[in-house]
Design goal:
single chain, alpha+beta, Hypothetical protein af1432, five-stranded mixed β-barrel, 39% helix, 14% strand
Amino acid sequence: MEPLQAELGETAPEAVPAPAHQALAALADGDRVECCYAVRDRSRRPTKRGGEWLSLKIADRTATIQAKSWDEIEARFAAAEPGTVVHLVGRYECSRQWGDALIVEAIAPAGEGDYDPANLLEVSPEPVERMEADLADLLETIQEPDLRELLDRLIAPGGELWERFRDAPAAKHYHQAYRHGLLEHTLSVAQGVSAAASFFPGIDRDVAIAGALLHDIGKLDAYNDNPLAIDMTDLGRLIGEIPLGYYRVRREIESIEGFDPDLGWAVLHIILSHHGTLEHGSPVTPATREATLVHMMDNLGGKLGSFDRIERTLSEGQAWSGFDRGIDGSAYFRNRRAA
């Protein structure tokens, strides 16, 4: 073999590109499916005849849908571990009686090169660089030195918690349940509080913004860091996001020498009361102007975030959604009406 031929013969073959992705949001009744998706959840359900069937939640960056398997339950359950990517073969069915679902015919763990991660990972529609810059600008407006130091220690870009705060989801299901979701939600609530504070007399703007920026910080401990299968951690289940946030912020306040205790309690009250009512998980209800404002903006941000999530699941020309627990009703999108 000539030297050039030998060199060519030893050259590694080019990588084979991953097959074209079939977006879940674009599937229609009867479509054949052979593609890779992330597994969000799995469960074995009983049949009326005493057997079992497998229920899966599978996802890509466009939607999360149900998949059903009636055969090989043991093997397919083992293959579909939440937080992993699987290769699915099946057909998509739309049923008014049973709901829309992907009927699984085969399932296997996906290998490297079988898929493009960008097709699976839903992220905030807002550029993270812009959100980081907006957060830095908002922090610059805080005039109270104690609150500024507290915020710099906990959430300022470049700080110890920054990467986790930047990448964490805001929820498991209902709003901003994706990478950078916590940053997006927190920033929108704080910007809303900042704008509204000038319209209502008696509000301490620095306290309200600090509380808004820290109200969900407990989610850093309450949720895992797997974007393919967002779930509650053991601490999240045992203690809850509000107490986790309260204790994290209180520990930081107590480590700052000379921190004004009245400011500390004002911010901690916002964290404890931001869900608004006892039945919604707040150990206390809002008792200050600042806490009331943050609760209202947080609730608004969560509701509007649910509309964003719902709209991404609708097919082309579909203007109404089904009932959604995130908004306690159906959503209507006038601009999506079929011509």
